[in-house]
Design goal:
alpha/beta, 6-stranded mixed beta sheet, two-stranded antiparallel sheet
């Protein structure tokens, strides 16, 4: 690289984030770029361009026809997830995810922090799955698992660094201290989330108590993929104050913020828009752009809010 000043001569890859850079003798500071590839996004599987988060409230957004034969329903999409081997080799998701849990999560990840109690660590991961879409409470999580909050914090950091989960930070710019400061926990693959929750068939999602949380986690992960796969840092937050007024997702584009509500319901309900209406009053921007993503099929506009079916992702 020193002799030939040509960018892109070498691509160094690794199947996991841990220890990859430690094996490189030189830091290559200023001469390399790090690119994270998460599991397949739905747009990748369909071979269409993803929705740009910066244009999520654009009234010109329309459903795109897939350029591949892959086109599945919502529950099958959530249940299958996006890990490449499942789609490339057509491996049944439950079989592959069982092996993934045993090898990467239970063996590789816990070996990094020298966790000797496999049963406790596995229970911790499953407890995290049960808390997806919720504000993280390390003390409660630790108590339920039988560990202290410091250990819970270390294990959460481990799972996030390994791209198993993602902690989404709260939005608090220009607001007082009444806003919630703890992050929300999400899984970056809905298939793994379903497996950890014991969902063995896609149809079980129809009446499952965690359907809304799984759907929200999937939507959030799709936007993280859109950012990471295009080499950008995610500018994603949630908002909640002490009175439980909440916005599921806020995109911060510098000059503007766009609130997004996420609902798994298949029909549009007026109650879906309460959070967006509150946000507009709070920011004194009655006509601010906003979006709602839901589990139905209709693409429409409601009181200045772009209503997007899950299928446009």
């Amino acid at each position: 690289m020193d002799r030939n000043d040509i960018a892109g001569q070498y691509i160094l890859t690794g199947s996991q984030n841990f220890l990859l850079l430690d094996k490189i003798s030189q830091s290559l500071a200023g001469r390399c770029a790090i690119h994270y590839l998460l599991p397949f996004s739905r747009s990748e599987l369909r071979r269409v361009a993803p929705i740009d988060p910066e244009n999520i409230a654009d009234t010109q957004i329309a459903a795109k026809k897939p350029k591949s034969k892959i086109e599945t329903g919502l529950f099958k999409t959530l249940w299958t997830g996006g890990y490449p081997r499942i789609h490339d080799k057509h491996i049944p998701p439950q079989r592959w995810l069982a092996h993934y849990l045993q090898t990467y999560i239970e063996r590789d990840l816990r070996s990094i922090v020298n966790v000797s109690d496999l049963e406790t660590f596995t229970r911790f991961v499953r407890l995290c799955a049960g808390r997806t879409g919720q504000v993280l409470n390390l003390r409660s999580l630790g108590n339920d698992c039988g560990i202290d909050s410091k250990t819970a914090k270390r294990w959460i950091s481990l799972l996030e660094t390994g791209f198993v989960i993602k902690l989404m930070r709260p939005y608090h710019k220009n607001f007082n201290k009444r806003v919630i400061k703890s992050p929300k926990l999400y899984f970056l693959d809905s298939g793994l989330l379903c497996y950890l929750l014991g969902i063995r068939k896609p149809d079980e999602l129809l009446m499952h108590s965690a359907r809304g949380a799984i759907f929200e986690s999937w939507i959030i992960s799709e936007f993280y993929k859109s950012y990471y796969h295009t080499g950008r840092d995610p500018e994603m937050y949630f908002f909640r104050d002490s009175n439980d007024n909440e916005i599921d997702l806020i995109f911060d584009h510098g000059s503007k913020t766009v609130p997004v509500e996420i609902k798994s319901g298949q029909t549009i309900n007026r109650d879906f828009f309460k959070g967006i209406e509150y946000w507009r009053k709070l920011t004194d921007q009655p006509g601010a752009p906003a979006a709602l993503i839901y589990g139905g099929e209709e693409l429409t506009l409601f009181k200045g809010t772009k209503v997007l079916p899950w299928g446009v992702l």
